[in-house]
Specification:
Helix content: 25-40%
Distance between the termini: 34 Å
CATH class of the largest domain: Alpha Beta
Number of domains: 2
Mean pLDDT: 90
Largest sheet: 12 strands, mixed
CATH architecture of the largest domain: 3-Layer(aba) Sandwich
Number of strands: 26
Low-confidence stretches: 7-42
Length: 549
């Protein structure tokens, strides 16, 4: 899973079952549905070479690389994941969940005791051995309220106690069965083991001086410019699906922070960077015909654009107003104008590829109908005044839309569509980090949002009332939604869980809490001098990469 807000299962014994219908735990009886393999990277030419530097452009800089202290931006998970590892991993070819930093694990018949045998011979980049106590200290830190682990606490919320009776044995005791836990434990950024010794040594500066057990180690951080990672020569335990079973081949990997999209593309053309992420569809078409670049692509595992409505805004607490806004948005027009048609209409917070997706939402979702939207606003008491602006009790219906440069066109289209109803929208565009912080504070009426994930537990993380002040940006406090989102977490039978999420999706439409707009195709452009990069469901993979110098 790779959760982001601007981007986890079989259980053994009586609970052996598919969680997601796409994922299977290795060794569990029963079958699973395979999904597409990781998309292969640029074709290789000759034997892999050692050395060189790969430079990647990111539009956002992490607030910190202390993953427990982060605001939850996907870039933090991606970059911290370069230095990390996890108890289990998701095989990119088969989607099986298999042991990684654990040699094995077992789950009690009631699903409430999980026992992992920790792999021996693994160390942090400073040589500190990894053991069961490391994971206990990491998980205890996440669960400690003093840590304020906004991005990670919900992923382990079901834990009652973590035990490490010896160096190789880790025991997780749960309050109740928790369906998403195993997939959550596979996230290399957010749930990687951290060295408490390193945290205590660095103190408040740990977020700028992290270390992990992964293939890369932090070399330097130039705020506002770049983060440079160096090869961890001690790393000799990559996941078995990699061809390269030793340390990574490049000397360095540089994350260069370029907020402006056009500047990013100019840097790609000039050779200043090697990899551009999230390239726009119109540009991807151009690079497909180039002999200097390779284009990798995949459909987003999540939703590329949806609008959230803040329940602190009085007008938006009226469900009829929220329904009117849903009907005002021409989703297909946005896909054509902003994505050149390289996307699909979203009808729910879940894409069709997710376990639990209810196809009925395609009919239940609000259809584009401006006349009906106007009638709903009229019936709700919002009448047009002499200037053509909606007004009620002396107040105009004026809303602020929180946005970012990346989705400027989409925001302008939304602004125009709502203007047709007599709703005045002011766009407040920010760089992604500031936007996320503003959303967490709830300082918006409407906000554009996107996410990457692979489990319907996203409903809990985004809309359960316990997440207000975290990822529940809209401050939704709905007892029925809380009950359903929590039920989905603790329901392990796949058919029963599917029914729960069907009800969640239908209820979300009934209440019109969000406006799902599109699922986009994601494009990555790579300079052909870099070989062997692959794309998994939620991130780029570099262990097989090398530089043709």
């Amino acid at each position: 899973m790779h959760k982001s807000r601007l981007g986890t299962k079989f259980f053994r014994g009586s609970l052996c079952t598919v969680m997601g219908m796409m994922l299977v735990i290795s060794g569990c009886s029963g079958g699973g549905t395979e999904v597409n393999s990781a998309i292969p990277g640029p074709e290789k030419s000759g034997p892999p070479k050692q050395g060189g530097t790969i430079t990647i452009a990111y539009k956002q800089e992490p607030d910190t690389l202390d993953v427990h202290k982060s605001n939850g931006a996907s870039v933090t998970d991606e970059l911290a994941g370069l230095m990390g590892g996890t108890l289990v991993y998701v095989d990119p070819d088969t989607r099986e969940i298999k042991p990684y930093l654990a040699d094995s694990y077992k789950i009690s018949p009631d699903g409430k005791v999980w026992t992992f045998t920790i792999r021996s011979g693994v160390t942090f980049s400073d040589g500190t051995p990894l053991n069961a106590k490391t994971f206990k200290e990491t998980f205890d830190r996440i669960l400690d309220p003093k840590t304020q682990a906004k991005a990670t606490q919900a992923m382990l919320e079901s834990l009652k106690e973590v035990k490490a009776p010896d160096d190789q044995t880790l025991i997780l005791e749960l309050k109740e069965p928790f369906a998403p836990l195993l997939l959550n434990l596979s996230v290399p950024g957010w749930l990687q083991p951290l060295s408490l010794q390193a945290i205590e040594k660095a103190g408040p500066d740990y977020g700028r001086h992290p270390l992990g057990v992964g293939p890369w180690k932090l070399e330097s951080w130039q705020p506002g410019q770049s983060i440079t990672f160096a090869r961890n020569d001690k790393f000799k335990w990559p996941e078995p699906y990699y061809e390269n079973q030793g340390p990574v081949r490049p000397d360095k990997l540089v994350a260069k922070f370029i907020i402006d999209y056009q500047t990013t593309m100019a840097a790609l053309d000039s050779g200043t960077i090697d990899v551009a992420l999230n390239v726009q569809a119109k540009d991807a078409k151009k690079y497909r015909n180039s002999d200097k670049f390779v284009v990798l692509e995949k459909m987003r595992s999540g939703i590329g654009l949806f609008l959230e409505m803040n329940m602190k805004t009085e007008a938006l607490r009226d469900v009829q107003v929220r329904k009117a806004l849903n009907m005002a948005i021409n989703k297909q027009a946005i896909i054509q104008a902003a994505l050149q048609g390289e996307g699909e209409v979203a009808h729910s917070l879940l894409p069709p590829t997710f376990f639990g997706y209810d196809k009925a939402v395609e009919e239940l979702d609000y259809k584009f109908d401006q006349e009906q939207a106007k009638k709903l606003l009229d019936d709700a008491g919002w009448k047009t005044n002499a200037e053509g602006i909606r007004e009620k009790n002396g107040k105009t219906l004026s809303l602020t839309l929180l946005s970012r440069e990346r989705q400027a066109k989409e925001s302008q289209l939304v602004q125009s569509m709502l203007d047709e109803l007599g709703i005045k929208v002011k766009i407040n565009s920010m760089e992604p980090g500031a936007m996320l912080d503003t959303a967490i504070k709830g300082e918006f009426d409407l906000t554009v949002m996107a996410y990457d994930h692979i489990d319907p537990d996203i409903f809990y993380m985004f809309f359960h009332s316990s997440q207000i002040g975290g990822f529940n940006f809209s401050s939704i406090k709905d007892e029925k939604l809380d009950e359903l989102a929590a039920l989905g977490r603790r329901t392990v039978d796949p058919e029963a869980r599917k029914q729960v999420y069907s009800e969640v999706q239908r209820y979300m439409i009934e209440q019109a809490y969000i406006i799902p707009i599109y699922i986009d195709k994601q494009f990555f452009v790579v300079n052909k001098r870099v070989k062997g990069i692959k794309v998994s469901q939620d991130r780029l993979l570099f262990n097989d990469a090398w530089v043709d110098q």
